## 1
Amino acid sequence: MRRLADLRQLAVVAIYLCLLGAMFFVPAARNPVVLLLAMLFGWLSMLVNHNVMHLALFDSKAANTALRLALSFGAMFPVSSLIPAHNIIHHHFGEDGLPDWADPKHARFKWNLANILHFPNVIGPITFDGTSRWGQVKGRAPFRAAYGMESAFAFGLTGALLLWDFWTTLCFIMIPQLFSARSFLRINIIQHEGTDTTSRYNHSRNFVGTFTNWLWMNGGYHTIHHDHPTLHWTELKAAHEQEVAPKMHPSLAEKSFGWYLIRTYLLTLWRPAPIDVAAAERGGAAPQQAVAQELHSNSTAAAAV
Amino acid sequence: MSFQLFLAGFLLFSVWIVALLSAADVLIDFRRLGALRRRWTPLSSADGTGLVVGTIVEGKGPDGVFAVHHLEQRVRALDRPNTLGFWDRTRAAELFGGTVSVGSTSVKVDAQPAQVWPSDERQAQALPLPATQFAALAGDAQKAAGALRRLDTPLKAQDTVYLAGTFRNGVLGPAPDGGLLVSAVDPNGWASARQNLCLGFVALAFGWASLGTALAVGAGEPWGLVSKLGAVVLIALFLGLTPLCVKVRNACKTPDERDVGGTQAQPTGLPHPA
């Protein structure tokens, strides 16, 4: 293992797989508490998945392959698809002049709750189609081999479990798998809806709460991750505070992930109109400065009245 | 009620949500296409705002071209022997103008901004690179950045053309909302066929979900073989309906925006690229 801190990432995946195994083999474990824990660790293992696709966990190729197989089973999709879909297309916010496969605009309802519910239904197929085309290019045989092996493992093992014990697999294995994969797709709309992907500092929404980032292994600091994709997760917080926080629009720093979801998708009926989050950046002033100036001019105007 | 029964109910609910959202998504296109059909009302003669069909008599562009649709594509070598793949990039259109015969009258069209819809057939004919261009691009296509090619689909003299805009004194101009369309395909017929596709998808989604639900929770032993069969039908819907939804969305893109892509094996008689 390259860094000792990554034991935590390995533990997350191990706990998730143990929870799935417990529910499958031990009837007493098929209860709401274990299922909810499995879903939580399924989501966390997707954050690990994201991290290890940018920065491999091990020096050993075999160990990295084994981890990818485990992650692929955990979310029932070949995780190597992240290489084109996330590392290349998403980090460039587009595919050679065409939209990012995970562009929030792929969801097009006025009702905002429908957008977040439906988003994985649209970007999932777009991603698989794009990945398949991307993999056909000359020189990408190793990618195709890894993708094929992960697909066979993820779908093969799930299929075998379905044959062994259909209903237990459906309810206690596939629900966490699908929850993990679909949450992972949904995070794209959460982190980029209403941002300006052409901007230097305002292309992403950040979740800056202490507990969220402790749980997510600093996965809330998304702007700095986009700017430095291979920066280790333990270094994201300091880099965010130094490079991003002073320059980003304050509305793109959310303290609470849960409150953001409630506010945006339950309490707001229609899709919010975009605000120009990069206006201050174009004007040359730091956003906090611009907001302070705006408040000052408003109060001056009010005093004059 | 057992926890497993609750979860099975939750899964059934989730599958129906996916079916409903996919149907609602496709109905967005259905409504857009309906608006497009209402916008371009067929005219009996070239007078007023609407749609006419005619034959191009003369084009003022290079080689007598009346209008052309451009699609820039990235060209990359594929991991198949001497085969190139094409990835769509930007699209553009040019209306050079000319004369179109509409019934017994003729309509003068000046060069101006317009939407140009190419026909699928002609675009497919134009897709394969001529042998010399294939050879010229094959080298760069091996590099990481690939090569670029432009796929031009022209409308020329003797072609049937659909014109939509405002006709005044035998001259075509934009409609009051600024729209002007030059199309090689009947816009209303095209939109109508796509609307039928959308309705077919909605029927499929609800039929599929209903069949799976009936099998999963209908007659038969609870958790029995028929119930399992129903669950399999619903899993297939969960995994299979959404790619179909995306295919229908793509099929509803207007002909100037549609996905083209494509691949091409090396034309015979050329030396193999290095």
## 2
Amino acid sequence: MFAYLVRRLFLMLVTLFGISVVIFFLLRIVPGNIVDILFAAAGYVDPADKANLEKELGIDQPLIVQYWHWIIGFLRGDFGYSYVSEKPALQEILPRIPITARLAGLALLFSASIGIPLGVISAVKQGTKLDYTLRVISLSGLSLPSFWLGLLILTASVAMFGQMPIFNPNPKTWLEAFATYAVPAAAVGFRSAALTMRITRSSMLEVLRQDYIRTARAKGASDAAVNYHHALKNAILPVITVIGIEAAFLIGGLIVTETVFNIPGVARFLVEAIRWRDYPIVQNLVMFIAVVVVFANFTVDMLYAVFDPRIRYTD
Amino acid sequence: MRSVRALAATAVLSLLAFSTIAFAGAPKQGGILRMYHRDSPGNASIHEGATYSLNVPFMPVFNNLVIYKQDEAQNRMDNIIPELAESWAWVNDNKTLTFKLRQGVKWHDGKPFTSADVKCTFDMLMGKSQQKFRQNPRKTWYEQVNDISTNGDFEVSFNLKRPQPSLLALLASGYTPVYPCHVSPGDMRTHPIGTGPFKFVEFKANESIKLTRNTDYWREGRPYLDGIEFTIIPNRSTAILAFVAGKFDMTFPTEVSIPLLKDVKSQAPNAVCVVEPNNVATNIIVNSSAPPFDNIDIRRAMALALDRKAFISIMFEGQGDVGGTMLPPPNGLWGMPKEMLETIPGYGPDVNANREEAKKLMQKAGYGPDKHLAVKVSTRNIPVYRDPAVILIDQLKSIYIDGELDVVETANWFSKIARKDYMLGLNLTGNAVDDPDQSFYENYSCGSERNYTNYCNKEIEKLFDVQSQETDIAKRKKLVWDIDKKLQEDVARPIIFHARTGSCWQPYVKGVTIMSNSSYNGYRYEDVWMDK
């Protein structure tokens, strides 16, 4: 077990090192840097001012030196300063993480709580009007871009209620806070819910044809018991896998949703930071996400090894 | 007796009625003005920026020596009023501009304002001080200033190399606040300290900017508002919807396009909206140092092919202005009169005739129906740049020029232009001050960093100096018209149109004035109040 843990730990460190190299050099391959952008915005360039600014920000140094400074700082917990706001990078990143985490969590919850039951209903009522209606809804969910859906929701809210579910940074009640996140979460989670529904439906249809389902019915089990206790329990595994994959894809949807609903989360912030070539923000933020994902995988691997001894011997 | 009582009652009623009217119109104290902001400015230092995204939220933090009257739409020399200065005088054959300064003014951190602060600010702008701005985009404004001298704590003089009456206009711009000596340029980027009607509270990048009332403001009874809050909403649809839903008291100034304005008026019929020119000219930059545009015939043909009214009709539903470099009248002070404008090739009303002439020039240069000229039209990847570039490509087709759109990200735009890696470019040029000195020297003088096309005509440059020193407005205007005409005839940087844009606010917001010949100077907000 110890050898397995050391091997996994080593692999994790190698992965993180690889990610750090890729992030760092990919950012530098993109044409233009913060100094170019600042001078482009000012519509002029003074070579001396430009050189001074590059020196001040340390981007005049060889890439390898810049990488070394960043990675040593990262390991020491010194994340540097945002080139744009000139505030500590951590101070800029940390307050935005909970906002996006709440939004993503709620979107996933929406996806599962809507997608799974509707998928089961669609499978059980296969070939009925209800099934067709649900399939059309799921298809539209997959086809509607989330930015368009978001704008549609905003326009409809203003036209119908004269109100707008735009982000409220200081909600006074729990309900207000929930409302702040619920609408954008629904907008971004609608696509995931549609996908979850389709996967649940097809997985359920496969399971419902199995012999043990017929046996359960023959034994006189109720429809609810058969569908939810016997069938769904066995059909849920591919659904969970898809929800897991969707969680990773969600970040893409969140960028658009955070923009449309003006939510100051980490996804929109990341895009803005890339636009400004704000290296300290982008590098540290992506690295932070990478560390979380790699650690989560590492923990899961360890748990597998704990529960299934074959893994630690064979891997 | 009865008649006396009746008369008294009438008098009392009249008094009541008048006082009610008077009170209804009198400004009220209090309230937070909520406005959305179109994007997140890079920092909070006006002197280091070149976008009005900075002026709008941060101009209320500062004062200038002098300023354009904030309740008049047109910026003119005769509506410049003292601010941190109490008075000014031109002396020494108009080569010295002396200001008497206001006493008892305090910076927001409590320190006293003196002439040393003025000297510090302008020494930094001229690049003469130890402390330096990271960027100094308006250094060229002060090229005629030799030095700044002080006489005690409350008198300061600008000593010029030669007379330059327009210096006062430059000093009245929103781009010319006085900075405190005791705060470093770095701190001014993150936490600006001013003497203005509002104090800086916080700036959260991509989120919000908050200002609060300066209770120690030197102007008695101002500002009326308790504060101003800007929510940064880059998505224009979201921002407009939020305004319609009443989440904001005001749109970002001059940011409502003409088609969107119709939406706002239909969904919020009570909103007050105005449309004004913003003194931003959409123009073509031509790389005349390389083929094919080193050929003056091809440049002239291109200028002749432009149907400026079509641009305005497509993009602004007819609400735009055709002009030369200077903003056309009546809003612009220095633009050529219509009759003069129409004598310039390409400005005549008969577009077909112009294009026939253009075709002849193209044929002379070796192009025709069987041999088209292929060019790339480069522009920034922003709708206000991209949309006219597409129309331009369409119009150039009529004279055997096949344009291909080359969309460039902002980060790479300026470096591309600077290294002359373009054939044609679609560009926008904003003028902070409606004055020829700012426009001519910045955009057309030999060696200017903003002279993207490297147009250089020493004869014209001499005329720039002549008009700059002319104190007689009528004479100066005539000189400016001649220069502008020559610039257009030389196809130095053909101007396509001058845009107009809208601004809206809720009916209870009072005291807002949108400037009609600059979008950089009208955001002090000390006269704005809310009737609710």
## 3
Amino acid sequence: MDKPFAITLDVGSSLANKTGSWRTSRPVYVDRLPPCNHACPAGENIQSWLYHAEAGDYEAAWRVLTLDNPLPAIMGRVCYHPCETACNRGKLDESVGINSVERFLGDEALKLAWRFEPPVRDSGKRVLVVGAGPSGLAAAYHLRLLGHAVTIIEAGPLAGGMMRFGIPKYRLPRDVLDAEIQRILDLGIELQLNRKVSNILDTMHSGAFDAAFLAVGAHIAKRAYIPAGSTARMLDAISVLRGMEGEDKPLLGRRVVVYGGGNTALDVARTAKRLGASDAIIVYRRTREKMPAHDFEVEEALQEGVLIKWLSTIRNMADEGTLTVEKMRLDDQGFPQPTGEFETLETDSLVLALGQDVDLSLLDDVPDLVIEHGVVQVASNMMTGHAGIFAGGDMVPSERTVTVAVGHGKKAARHIDAWLRGGRYAPPPAHKLAAFESLNAWYYADAPKTTQPVLDLARRASTFDEVVRGLDESTALFEARRCLSCGNCFECDNCYGVCPDNAVIKLGPGKRFEFNYDYCKGCGICVAECPCGAIEMIPETI
Amino acid sequence: MEMQTVKFYQTGTFTVGNRLLAEDERSVQANMHRTNSLNSGHRACQGCGEALGARYAIDAAMRSTSGELIAVNATGCLEVFSTPYPETSWKIPWIHSLFGNAAAVASGVAAAMRVRGRSAVRVVAQGGDGGTTDIGFGCLSGMFERNDDVLYICYDNEAYMNTGVQRSSATPPAARTATTPALGREPGNVFGTGKNVPLIAMAHSIPYVATASVANLRDLERKVAKAMTISGARYVHIHVPCPLGWGSLPADTIKVARLAVESGLFPLFEAEHGEITGRTPIRRKVPVTDYLRLQKRFAHLFNVADEPRIARIQAIADRNIAKFGLLETPAHG
């Protein structure tokens, strides 16, 4: 024994002491559902595509984004971004400008001509899509990627549906619309224009289709009975907006009154301003709080000089263009009630923007359908009562927005695919919501939102140039980096750093971390100091 | 290594790592191949701030010296929980002698290295607040006064934790310890005149003095790295919460340390040759009660709302903020 004086044992390592046995609860890595993803009607994995955008890898970001939504440049312009309303960053300073980053990615993809990867294998099944609006296009895209042969039949002269015939150019330039549609069609999807399906079963039979997805939209303007003189000029919002796409623009005159309180009413009033109207007045029967139109659209319209008469209904319209308007008041339930007070309003034309109905004539001979309130009822898998016929978009009960329609298209495509294979699509179980309380907000740097530049007021009121301009690369990157990555590890190394017992193993870039339960004492510092709430403490089973 | 001006990225340098920084701009602790000088299996309590602070500091010193480092340890928790015979948690050359002589032993190790022509080998002495501010204070002052080439690191957990939470000269006013029970008309530790060892170190005009906290890793690593670029006596005083002695939750160790900094009770500053050269400003100021409430050693201040003594503690924090300019925007980085 050649050890120093009084030493009888070799030096050992404390690794022999498995301090993990002290633990009564253990940390585990979790993924939680970020509120943005949760709120997205199209089911986009927003946190995940922002993660790639943060690193400046815009193509990877775009590829993750388009796994769920094939229309990012359009979304970045017309989506009402419920994601931003839900964003946890809103509780810190301002929500992340998700929509503007999405638009940047969409524009980048168009600029650099990124394409979708076509499917590797064909399933041999044929699916018919009726309607080339957002829902039909999204369904066609997802069905094609799943290997099915897809044919879209569209009644109109061009694809796009309400994105073309309902949304004005100053919100969605047509070259963007055309390019994103073409990229979907380039996957090998057949598009037949100017063809109205009059009987869906006949069309499916003659084309040997195995399933159909219907998304014909809601294009019939709702009417209200307003007594009017024979020469009074009364139009509906849908035909005004559709007319904007043709050679002859609608003649609205110098003074225009729009009746209604939805986004369509605002679109028409703003369009009238651009066509040269000196007065564009919206008459709406309730108050601003009750108005279904989105706040920022109301804001932009007011900035452009559109006037809004709240709590008013139109009683009649005389020949010379005099409107009789009755003042209303809200009752206890919030419904408008007449007051008996009248005033008059001079106008050259009255545009009714009171909502739209669906033309359901193609379903006339289909058995087992349920139609309520003018829309087709569908099960949770988007299938109508008739096996093999699915439906989505404005023709089923839902909120009528482009994003919801795109979401329907994706959801229906997955269920159609499963149905064609004789199974049922089971969505992966949803993670728990990443609430603001689960974050450690200390770690996030302060950085208010980069707002997209808004077109100079004077210029935008007279032209159809796009009102909201996009972000440039550096501001888009900044905006993406404002993401808190709620509930999903972004490899900040905090857990790896703060563990007093070195019980967190760093697996390397992109591979996240692992706990070494041999030594983890269960102190929970990693949980407390994880910025994004991606670690959870669970009791040990004894 | 100067503070990095990081391109805005979610968490900036607040988190341990940042996947967008170049490899050499990242923290030592973010590195997959950090030394882990204080290895797993040590017997420190759950959520030990001292174990964490020691690994932060020694890993940083190891990077700065390319691994040519010897550590001398005073008696205390850190020594006891890391080296129960025959096991050791230290992955670096390490020596322990007595409670009060760490600074003197370190002076000797440095002298031995010099004599043997191994001047590249650097020496770190480390101890708790008991071994530093009380028992080892004479040796420490001597090491300063001779300007021996040693970095002395004090891990301040504000009492003798190893022997069962007895008061030290670093125990804050009103804190309950085993020897200052929460009894009588003025429960807890006395409101003395204080003994601020970083300021005493500065009075020796040694080349470098700094305070640091486990709640601010980048600041801590930068100060240790800076200390290792300097020859002569250096002193770094690191605030390390003790869940057992303070009666705080093990999971709250970093939070408690952060609140000490943000309230102004533990000012972060650095000094060269007796002059203050830098301070780390408070990011979001909080009242001292945010800090005190998380700790059972101060529970008696809140059981019967002891406003006057809470106000006296707040006054200490306010004085620190004014004295060190903790709410001013820094001139650099």
## 4
Amino acid sequence: MTAYTLPNDTGHFGKFGGRFVPETLMKAITELTDAYEAAKLDPEFTSEIERLSKEYVGRETPLYFAENLTKYAGGANIYLKREDLNHTGAHKINNAIGQALLALRMGKRKIVAETGAGQHGVATATVCALLNLDCIIFMGEEDIKRQALNVFRMELLGAKVVSVTSGSATLKDAVNEALRYWVANVEDTHYLLGSVSGPHPFPMIVRDFQSVIGKETKEQFLERNESLPDAVVACIGGGSNAMGMFYPFIEEEEVELYGVEAAGQGVDTPFHAASLTKGKPGVLHGALMFVLQNEDGQIQEAHSISAGLDYPGVGPEHSYLKEIERAHYHSITDKEALDAFQLLTKLEGIIPALESSHAVAFAVKLAAELGPSKNIVVCLSGRGDKDVDAVRARLRGGNN
Amino acid sequence: MNRIEKTFQLLNNNGSKAFVPYIMAGDGGLDSLVERLQLLEKFGASAIEVGVPFSDPVADGPTIQQAGIRALNNGTTLKGIVAKLAEARESINIPIILMTYLNPIYAYGIASFVHDIQNAGVDGCIIPDMPLEEEDIIAPKLEAAGIELIRLVTLTTPIERIKQIATKGNGFLYTVTVKGITGVRNEFDGDIHAYLQAVKEVSPIPVLAGFGISNQEQMLDLTKNCDGVVVGSRIVDLFAKNNLAEMEQLMSIFKQKSNIV
């Protein structure tokens, strides 16, 4: 593969990406692009991120060889990149720190963000507490009900959580409201977008801040095995942990990249979140990307047991990697994810987030397929403490 | 000459200001669309903006969001709207401008969309989530079809960029008068007149103010420094309440008073 330099200057990955936003936001996203280009060349900025990543977040995170899971799967070796061990319990903090420092550089002390499961909201509220920034989080009414503990957590951290009742009252609508709020408050507020979605430069910025995952994985794996893994696997909602894992491996063609979407109740039912598997290219929330939509271009609701994967679009870079067939995208059902949640807990004593359980479930299948002497790294994007209630309710409900 | 250009030439000759109402197609049922357009023309609309409902309208406030949901629940589709507009064109003489987010067009197929709205006699298009940087996806096709792409400028658009957008020279320049989304406002930013004057100064095409404009006083005040107003949420609300008398009054008083200016 020739050098991979995307996105281009206009924020496109092939035909995907771009800046499909109301004119009111153009000035802010242009400023953000300029501020980011300057910041990433500023050693003071990058060393502050490194310092906080190390001292505050707890990086680097371990690369763990899951011996019991490997034996169970009966094939390739399975390693886990332990993003669940980050402060706040997921990879989301990697991006929140970077963007909050960027906001400070731009002189913006007010932060708005969206959240689905609450992980990005908690990470954002955490960084805002640390840096003394005003924080307002939009969250769907349905998700507020499902994730009451995370709402309380954000409030403890000093954030204002606003319930979104429009549309389906989930993540997609929280993004709509956050965008509307940003349009009205753009001059003193930074939108701390949580995934590799939205208008340029967000997909690039979030990817870059998350790519610490893949960079560390590469170094750790090389040090241990003097080779690269045969495959890396990550779950995909908007796609931030996957993009962070994939990006440093894109030019390493011998490494296969696997993204795992949420199949919900099945991709042949209306209840799934598999945008790459079942969606079509379309424009949502500022980017051209694969989107779940009906034939008239109305966006459809996504469904997944995992609130973090419950999004009807997928980042433009994933859309591009699918199109050029550099990455492979598969899906895992709610039931398979629940099984993997319990499996990893029992075998390794690690309770994974339901989001990450999708990646684990797929890795077990892939390991058997690849056979012994091959190596797979799974991005364990978050820990499952937040999901214990939901899993208990589901298991007691006898749906499993 | 395009209908939009003709309309503004006429307004200009008469020293009149434009009143452009916005309605949500399919709110109240798509079958009422033609009748509503006829009514607006009768009440004195200079042109009509026809909104296409979208599931995720990020530039719109609650009034238009709700109207969009009602329209979608009625089974309204872009294809259905285009067919109705073709029918409306037989009786409507003023310009019809379609306002739609990009995704319904993208799903329709850009070439087919442009072809079909040209046949339906649509005069212009407003796409609120498509800034200058992305317009190549459709602008050349619209231009070839003689359909004006109406562009927006806002309070956050730097003056150099306003100039760049205005000199593209299509139809009129849609000048967003609030920092925020559509919906009725009680008052405007104190700098609004300076802003409109600055836009007027650099724009070779007529300048219309829109977003948040709902009452007579605001309309007459804003048109001191621009060529007309777009009124959305208020009209949508009056249709939803079936308060046609108030709508007629709003439009006719504006016509009389703005004419004297």
